[in-house]
Specification:
CATH architecture of the largest domain in chain A: 2-Layer Sandwich
Largest sheet of chain B: 6 strands, mixed
Number of helices of chain A: 14
CATH topology of the largest domain in chain A: Cytochrome Bc1 Complex, Chain A, domain 1
Largest sheet of chain A: 7 strands, mixed
CATH superfamily of the largest domain in chain A: Metalloenzyme, LuxS/M16 peptidase-like
Distance between the termini of chain A: 58 Å
Largest interface: A-B, 73 and 65 residues
Distance between the termini of chain B: 57 Å
Strand order of the largest sheet of chain B: 1-2-6-3-5-4
CATH class of the largest domain in chain A: Alpha Beta
Number of strands of chain A: 14
Strand content of chain B: 15-25%
Order of helices and strands of chain A: EEEEHEEHEEHHHHEHEEHHEEHHHHHE
Number of helices of chain B: 15
Number of domains of chain B: 2
Oligomer: heterodimer
Chain lengths: ~425, ~400
């Protein structure tokens, strides 16, 4: 039995096995995009096996059903599917976009991937080498590494495990570890499929029912016990031209009643060139080229993650001004700043309808956090309803007082 | 989609591709000024000038410019390359007039001394940021080595020294010469009417100085070479190689694009199966860059430093096999499908149409629809690919390595 709900133009259905399907038909485009969210993120890895989620993601694609790695890649490319896979703390996300008429055939390939990956032994070693190479490359990218280390330090455990993995733990990962990971985590209940574009809901539903109707979980998804941690300061010494600065402090997750106030706060700090961080740190003082603050959400917790890169001699001043700006938000927020937030949000929301990939991804993400569809109209309403007082009230309850700090560069900094 | 074109009396080219079915409108000013147009004494001025434009005019201060764009919810930015400076924005249709006003105004900026001094610090920070990115260091070095003696060899950002020495007066002179209306193309794509585009261009761009600035074109003949930059603390070795490819006006440029997909796409390409799939390299990709008077194939290889000499040799042999035997029918067909999908998907958003719209006009005075681009790819034959490989063989001339290695040989 299928259960269908209609919500404006977005159609939803849940299969008997729990697989959630969300479809937003967009008749004016030719493309169709899909976004699979599978509960196989790094937080689900067994202890001391950080990297297993990344290995699983890669090994899955190296042969499925009747096709080996090369045949599978060629099949995906023959349909013109532009595909992209990524791992987060909570999910394995598989996205793709193609011409609408090729979606049906694409779903068949993804059925093979999700239900019948080959996990051939001779493909395991190359997969491990690939993950190892990526981690080594990250060592040479300080702008990215600083944020990986920041979340590793401040996120509650085990949600702090870098989705890319940790070099030291790779030797603990065996084929059996991955097969168990697959059995436990790649499952229809708690899996979400978002689709947007030139599609017909009925046709999609029939395809998905035919291809995924018999999908059953083959293991138990382990319970995750979340453990928050206190703030910390870490310095990673490196001879470099710039010092990388990462600052984090608590905020709220997507499902929280304060979410939109938090979002507005992050926008006032970091949205557009007229935002506070850009104005104070870059425009007025020329202290950096790149600086931002973003609201990062896990399922159960949220954080404000801030970044700046600055030449070594000016790093102390950059951090000082950054912290002043972050802390100064509690003193007040103007109507004009809020109006700019709204304008940018309105544009972004409306323009996101031009991108089938953005819509497919939003559908899945919203369901994952909230268990329901969020229409663009609802987002607009929530943003329009905000007042400066709401934002200040939120900031006073979630101030940038007790921050975590990670720096990469020749000298440590004090916060 | 409907295409329109006109030229203002001062020489500004105005193009529009109207599409009422989309939500936004994107527009951009393509200025024919890039790092290749700079005299040695003003190395980095095009990119610095791009930054200085956002510091505003007599009417709009820097704060005004930043604030107004954000009030309009504009998605905007600018970019400087070797051959052009592009200022672009996407907005909801109801905000076009206001966004256009500010965007057009800053093309003729005030270039104030105190803004110049502060922004110089930002440019130096940007240079510092890239200095810590080995792949960017490798790219800058290979362009300098491969194009030694040719304007394309200069870095886009300039150097710490050249930027420190640059004066506002030098920038003003460069702006006067290069930001003339005849050097600029305005392209607009999306949900807009042609009468409105003409009205905005007439209202905000008519008083721009007329004239053009000629670009010095010279054939690029590379002496090749190899440079190794040793940074012992790095974990991976990053290699960039260059060789000649068709220029921006060559009919073979579509074939060149297809060749890089077959040979060096990040998934399911010859380089991928040879080096990345077995885990012998982190990245092994081939891309194509076209300029007014030349083109390049760029090979990028990165990974474990120990494997680099063997990987370089394997890549070289892979290229020689291609030069000798060409590609297969199946490879050609698959590459066409991949590229066709990219063309269609990119074209669904006005911002995605903008670079094609402006780029084709600036380079060739031509307008190409999505269907035109799809056809151009579809008609390519194995014989075309053979001709391409005969005239532009994949045989790398110049090499740069950045990483812990002292040499690229064992």
């Amino acid at each position: 039995m299928l259960c269908r709900m209609n919500q404006t133009e977005i159609q939803t259905a849940r299969l008997d096995n729990g697989l959630m399907i969300l479809v937003e038909p967009l008749p004016d485009v030719r493309s169709a995009a899909f976004s699979w969210w599978i509960p196989a993120g790094s937080a689900h890895e067994p202890p001391a096996c950080n990297g297993a989620a990344a290995v699983l993601c890669d090994w899955m694609f190296r042969g499925a059903g009747d096709r080996d790695h090369q045949e599978l890649s060629t099949a995906i490319d023959s349909l013109g599917v532009q595909s992209q896979e990524s791992v987060t703390a909570s999910h394995l996300i598989m996205q793709g976009a193609c011409l609408g008429e090729n979606l049906g055939e694409s779903l068949k390939l993804y059925a093979d991937l999700l239900l019948r990956p080959r996990f051939e032994e001779h493909e395991f070693e190359p997969t491990m080498l690939g993950v190892e190479q990526s981690l080594q490359a990250l060592e040479d990218e300080p702008r990215q590494k600083v944020m990986v280390e920041l979340t590793r330090n401040c996120y509650p455990r085990p949600w702090n495990r870098p989705p890319e993995g940790t070099l030291a733990e790779l030797p603990n990962i065996t084929p059996d570890v991955i097969r168990r990971q697959f059995a436990q985590c790649v499952r229809p209940d708690q899996a979400i499929l978002g689709i947007a574009g030139h599609v017909d809901f009925r046709e999609v539903l029939e395809s998905v029912q035919a291809l995924f109707g018999e999908w059953r979980p083959t293991g138990e998804l382990p319970q995750i016990v979340t453990q928050p941690v206190a703030s910390s300061t870490v310095h990673l010494p490196q001879e470099s031209t710039q010092t990388q600065i990462g600052v984090a402090y608590p905020s709220v997750p997507y499902r929280d009643a304060d979410y939109y106030a938090a979002w507005a706060a992050s926008n006032i700090l970091s949205g557009g060139m007229s935002c506070r961080l850009m104005t104070e740190v870059r425009e007025k003082r020329g202290l950096c080229y790149s600086i931002y603050a973003s609201l990062a959400g896990l399922q159960e917790a949220g954080f404000m993650l801030c970044y700046a890169g600055t030449t070594n001699e000016r790093a102390a001043e950059t951090l000082e001004v950054m912290l002043q700006v972050l802390r100064g938000l509690g003193e007040g927020v103007s109507e004009a700043e809020l109006a700019r937030c709204r304008a940018r949000a309105k544009s972004a929301l409306i323009m996101s309808q031009e991108s089938t990939g953005a819509r497919a991804s939003s559908l899945a993400r919203d369901w994952s956090h909230l268990g329901r569809v969020v229409t663009l109209q609802e987002v607009r309403q929530r943003i329009d309803a905000l007042t400066p007082a709401d934002i200040v009230d939120y900031v006073r309850r979630y101030p940038a007082d007790d921050v975590s700090l990670v720096t990469i560069g020749p000298e440590p900094l004090t916060k | 989609m409907q295409f329109h074109h006109t030229t203002l009396p001062n020489g500004l080219e105005v193009l529009a591709e109207i599409n009422p079915a989309v939500q936004s409108v994107a527009f951009g000013f393509f200025v024919k000024a890039g790092s290749r147009d700079e005299a040695v004494e003003v190395h980095g001025v095009s990119h610095f000038l791009e930054h200085m434009a956002f510091k505003g005019t007599d009417r709009y201060s820097a704060d005004d410019v930043n604030r107004i764009f954000d009030e309009l919810g504009a998605d905007y930015n600018a970019a400087t390359s070797e051959e052009s400076t592009l200022f672009y924005a996407a907005v909801l249709p109801e905000y076009l007039s206001q966004a256009f006003d500010v965007q057009a105004a800053i093309i003729q900026p005030a270039l104030r001394e105190d803004d110049f001094a502060t922004e110089k610090q930002v440019i130096l920070e940007e240079i510092g940021m890239y200095d810590d990115q080995p792949s960017v260091v490798a790219y800058d070095q290979i362009m300098q080595t491969h194009f030694d003696g040719h304007p394309l060899g200069r870095t886009i950002l300039g150097t710490t020294d050249s930027i420190r020495q640059l004066t506002a007066a030098q920038m003003q002179a460069y702006h006067r010469d290069h930001y003339r209306a005849g050097n600029i193309t305005l392209a607009v794509a999306g949900n807009v009417s042609w009468p409105l585009v003409q009205e905005l261009a007439a209202k905000f761009c008519t008083d721009w100085p007329a004239g053009k600035c000629d670009r010095v074109l010279k054939p690029a003949v590379s002496a090749g070479g190899c440079r190794v930059i040793t940074r012992e603390a790095l974990q991976t070795e990053q290699i960039v190689q260059l060789t000649a490819a068709p220029d921006t006006n060559a009919p073979l440029r579509y074939a060149a694009e297809l060749l890089t997909v077959i040979v060096g796409d990040d998934q399911n390409s010859r380089l991928y199966w040879e080096l990345v799939d077995p885990g012998d390299a982190d990245q092994a990709e081939l891309s194509y860059n076209d300029y007014d008077d030349t083109g390049t194939y760029l090979f990028f290889l990165s990974g474990d430093p120990v494997s680099i000499p063997a990987n370089l040799d394997r890549a070289r042999q892979l290229f020689e096999t291609l030069n000798r035997d060409g590609i297969t029918e199946a490879e050609l067909r698959l590459a066409k499908t991949k590229v066709a999908s990219r063309i269609v998907l990119r074209g669904e958003r006005p911002m995605g149409r903008l670079s094609s719209l402006g780029g084709n006009w600036v380079a060739r005075g031509e307008y190409r629809t999505i269907a035109d681009d799809l056809r151009a790819v579809d008609v390519i034959t194995l014989r075309d690919m053979r001709e391409l490989l005969d005239r532009f063989p994949l045989r790398m001339q110049t090499t740069v390595g950045v990483g812990p290695r002292q040499s690229l040989k064992d």
